[in-house]
Protein: Dolichyl-diphosphooligosaccharide-protein glycosyltransferase subunit OST5
Amino acid sequence: MSLNEVWEAASATPFIPLIAKDSQFSVGFNLLLLALVTGTLFGLNRSFLGIVSLGFPAALASGFGAVFMICAAGVYV
Structure:
């Protein structure tokens, strides 16, 4: 299958995001708030179990929340 055929086949199925554009700001804000809370709790008790139960989810929530906030607010130059 050539690249042109793949391009034409992809035009029949448009991309539909998992989170709608109207709700990306609230999802991003809630993820960043969750990251702040879990990161603070992790800072209070830094143990190996805390890394798995609080540190790793805080890092994921922070990363995904930041991406959602950038997508919701846009980048203006």
Summary: The CA atoms of residues 4 and 33 lie 44 Å apart.
